[in-house]
Design goal:
heterodimer, A: mainly alpha, Ferritin, 9 helices, 57% helix, B: 161 residues, GMP Synthetase, Chain A, domain 3, four-stranded mixed sheet, three-stranded mixed sheet, 4 helices, 7 strands, elongated, PaaA_PaaC (chain A), Phenylacetate-CoA oxygenase subunit PaaC (chain A)
Chain lengths: 277, 161
């Protein structure tokens, strides 16, 4: 029995008029959850931290989605899209948490705009208002470089999310606990490809070394982490690859790459802040 | 006669795995009535699962049709969903539909795996255990892709999480 899905439109007929480019306001990803600010937590700092974590996920999700239809084969295309989808989900939760903690972070929109806070944050902030690291905004490069970035980023993010199990905010704790399970699949996907490319041909090794050198200096832009470093060392050892001789790249203002990415991501949404369907 | 809200909610199926009810999948956490209102609590499978919105709409749609006008769907993120919550009936329904059900989910620190994951699976078509992993990421967020070396059948496996 499956009469909910006899028609592709049947399931959409509940209060379905919503902003044309995002989620319906009633599709709040934190619906019914306790979003009060825990004792001892500064709401502004919590919102700022959630924007950092959410923007990292959002920007990398967009970069990975640029592979859709372009990956070396269908399985990797689907894998990168799946990882992007998980990160987009993390971003939705974290941006929504930022907006509930400190509504002043949400950019103002025209009266009558149906854009929910998570989408206002994603589509209506300018480049300088994004809190992501440079690591996630760099262009994709080739497949090897993308694998290196996912490996470095997911390894650091996983180690961070394991520690966030002790965060005072219940929403952050829940997002992190869920994210740990997803990030483990992302990290291992990248680690397995890293080893495969290292053991492949001269050309695949050359590209892997080039890609790793591109991203290596950015890996501790959210702080150094001994757990993550140990995991990366294990992957490099399994692959027989030496760590690149690249010093840390300090977090700086955003690069032009982010501006160009956001222009593409935001242009249609910004043209129709009141668009409904 | 008005049917119990919990009974109605328990019949709603997953939009992507329609052989499973939301109860079988372990996504349906509770159904409570507060006066005339019904509050259904669900726990999404993956952070970005695009089926979550469809689940919410289907729950509201079904309950309204049974006469419950005020239906709210709440999200519970903690504890996180795990494939261990898929019921025995759900596992049988998956296997009957040609989808390999998950093994036990791992707990504790997440070990690094630099070689492809090895699972003891059998082909859902011919029961051969000579199967190979095609990809850890399948057509939906919760499945991996396998292929049977004996009969050639490609099939999905609900991956442990």
């Amino acid at each position: 029995m499956n009469d909910d899905h006899d028609s592709a439109y049947a399931g959409l007929l509940v209060d379905d008029a919503h902003w044309a480019f995002g989620e319906a306001a009633h599709d709040d990803p934190l619906a019914g959850m306790d979003t009060s600010i825990p004792a001892g937590v500064d709401a502004t700092e919590l919102a700022s931290y959630c924007l950092e974590l959410g923007d990292d996920a959002l920007v990398l999700a967009h970069r990975l989605s640029e592979w859709c239809g372009r990956a070396p084969d269908l399985e990797e295309d689907i894998a990168l899209s799946n990882i992007a989808l998980d990160l987009l989900g993390q971003a939705r939760l974290l941006l929504t948490r930022a907006a509930t903690a400190d509504p002043s972070v949400v950019p103002p929109l025209p009266d009558g705009s149906p854009v929910p806070p998570e989408d206002a944050l994603a589509f209506f902030r300018d480049d300088h208002q994004f809190r992501n690291t440079n690591l996630v905004e760099l262009p994709n490069g080739d497949f090897a470089e993308t694998i290196c970035r996912v490996l470095v980023w997911a390894t650091y993010r996983l180690a961070l999310f394991e520690r966030l199990a002790a965060h005072p905010d219940g929403v952050v704790r829940a997002v992190a606990a869920k994210g740990v399970k997803e990030l483990a699949y992302h990290r291992d996907f990248a680690a397995q490809w890293f080893v495969t490319l290292a053991r492949g041909t001269e050309e695949s090794r050359r590209r892997l070394h080039t890609g790793l050198a591109q991203v290596w200096g950015y890996r501790h832009q959210r702080g150094e982490d001994a757990v993550a470093e140990a995991v990366l060392a294990e992957v490099l050892a399994a692959a027989g690859v030496a760590a690149p001789d690249v010093g840390p790249v300090a977090t700086s203002s955003h690069t032009e790459h982010l501006s160009r990415m956001l222009a593409e991501m935001q242009v249609v949404a910004r043209a129709h802040p009141r668009g409904r369907w | 006669m008005v049917r119990a809200a919990a009974e109605v909610a328990a019949e709603v199926v997953d939009p992507e795995l329609p052989m499973l009810t939301l109860a079988d999948l372990g996504v349906l956490r509770s159904v409570e009535t507060e006066g005339d209102a019904v509050v259904v609590t669900i726990t999404p499978t993956y952070s970005g699962c695009p089926a979550t919105a469809a689940m919410r709409d289907d729950l509201v749609h079904r309950l309204r049709r049974e006469g419950y006008d005020d239906v709210r769907v709440a999200i519970a993120l903690h504890p996180a969903w795990t494939t261990d919550w898929i019921t025995e009936g759900g596992r049988r329904a998956l296997a009957a539909a040609g989808i390999s059900p998950p093994g036990p989910a791992r707990t504790g620190p997440v070990p690094l795996t630099v070689t492809p994951v090895r699972r003891q699976l059998t082909c859902t078509r011919c029961a051969s255990s000579d199967v190979e992993l095609t990809s850890e990421f399948g057509p939906t967020a919760c499945t991996a892709l396998y292929r049977c070396r004996s009969c050639g059948e490609p099939f999905e496996h609900v991956k442990e999480i």
